[in-house]
C-alpha cells in the first residue's frame, strides 16, 4: 500500500482512505468475505490516527462495502446481491 494522504486536498483524510479501499474492493484486491486490513495496519500504512481510520471504515460500512464484526474485523460484502435485493424490493 504505497498510497499517501493529500492533506491539502478538500477531501478529508478518512474519505481518501475510504476511496482507496473502495478501489481495491472493486478491483478484486479484497474479495467478497475477505477482511480488509486492520485499523492498526491502516494507521501505519497511511500515517493517520485511529479515529481517522475508524471514520473511513464507518463510511465503508454505511455505504454497504463492508460489515464489521466486533473483535474480529471488517469484511467485504457482496454489493451485487445486496443491490439486487434492494431493486427487487422497490419493484414489489
UniProtKB/TrEMBL annotation:
Keywords: DNA-binding, Transcription, Transcription regulation
Alphabetized Pfam families for the sequence: GntR
Domain (HTH gntR-type) ranges: 11-79
Name of the molecule in the record: Winged helix-turn-helix domain-containing protein
Naturally occurring in which organism (per UniProt): Streptodolium elevatio
Taxonomic lineage from the root: Bacteria, Bacillati, Actinomycetota, Actinomycetes, Kitasatosporales
